[in-house]
Structures are given as C-alpha cells and as structure tokens.
Amino acid sequence: MERLQKIIANSGYCSRRKAEEFIQQGKVKVNGKTIWELGTKANFSDQILVDGKIIGQEMKVYYLLNKPRGIISSVHDDKHRKTVIDLIETDKRIYPIGRLDYDTTGILLLTNDGELANLIMHPKNKIDKVYVAKVKGLVNKEDVASLTKGVVIDGKKTAKSKVKVKKYDKKNQISIVEVSIHEGRNHQVKKMFESLGFEVLKLKRERISFLNLSGLKSGEYRELSIKEVKKLYSEVSK
Fold first, then answer.
1. Which of 35, 59, 144, 182 has a CA positioned 20 to 30 A from the CA of residue 6?
2. Strands (DSSP E) along the chain, which ranges?
3. Which residues are designated catalytic?
4. Between 169 and 80, where is the model more confident?
C-alpha cells in the first residue's frame, strides 16, 4: 500500500504536488469513491481515476537532452513553439525536470518519474547544477566573492554557490564564468549577474549532479542507464 499521491505521481500522470491538488479538489476516485484525504493509501490493483481518467503503473523512462537554443522547456506551448518534448521519440508522457530558458542551452532531464523529479528539484536535496555563462564585462574577485556568498534577487538572498572565472577576453570586455548552484529559482543565474550590473550574453548548463553532456551534440539525447538512475536516487536520498 502506498499513499495515493505517490501512486499517481509514479504512474507518470503528473507530479506528486499536482496529485495532492487533484485529491484536495475532489478529482480523485478509488474504486468509485471520491478521496479527499491526502494520507489515503491504495495500490495499483485498485481502480484509480484522476479527473475521470484511469491511471495505471507505467514503465519509467529517463532521458538526458542537450537542449538547443530557441526551444521551450515545457510539455506544451500556447504560442505553438517547438518544445523539448518534440525532440524526444517516446510513447510515454514525459516532462522536463525543471526548466531552461528559451535562449539557454545544455543539460536537461526528462522523465515520467514524478518522485525523482520532485526530489531533484527540491532545494533541500542540494543537487548541484553547473552553468557556464558568457558575461559582458570583466568579473573581478570581489564580484566572485559576492556571488559565492549570495546576492539578493527578487527580494531574497540566494544560497551560497561556487563561482570561478574560467577565461577573460579583455579586448572585448567578456568573462567566461562557471557557476554551481543547487537552487532552481526563475532565471536565477542571469539575475545573480544582473544584481551586480553584468549582462549574461550566453548561458549553458553543463552538469546536473554527476551527469554531463559527454558525447551529445546540441539537440541530441540519450536514455539514462539503470545504474545512473539508481545513483541519482542515492544522491537525493542522502
């Protein structure tokens, strides 16, 4: 027996948080009975309906994508722009774990495993996300110290991060900076630099935890191995 919201999330129908919302809205039925309590337990032998749709246990899939520029990190787009889902051939209902901006490139994970997605995205699990930013202006030691300690964006200070200047182009006044964060706030890396007066010209996410883009060109993807999935679960369960 498992908590109902976990079963729904594990089915790939939606995230656990969204499943909890469905329960609280009275949109979930188990064996014909509407369920309102979040602590209710069930199993896959029960008939579970979410918003009128029967769910069942679905094989979990995990993809690592090298997201190109100009692609939306979403399942659907109201403006009919191309999304990351369009790049992956699968018959499973997958969704991206977190987001990369329209003009940001790099590593993105997609899955139908709601539990793992929530664990990776939750800041308390401190999963490193490593970015390389091309910044207009020369980032000095004081700027690095400020970014490392945390800066205020959207009225709230960012958590400590790891920051390293990889290269200077003094002629064109450009800095290439590596930033490692474990939060996932909206446009966080860009806003961190903007708080110090720098404009991010290009941004690429190079790594999530131990996973990187090795062997993948822009727009290419691969499935994670069972070993990699287990290692991810061990990382978020520490």
1. 182
2. 2-3, 28-30, 33-34, 41-42, 48-50, 53-54, 62-67, 95-96, 105-111, 129-136, 152-153, 156-157, 162-169, 174-181, 199-208, 211-212, 221-223
3. 101
4. 169
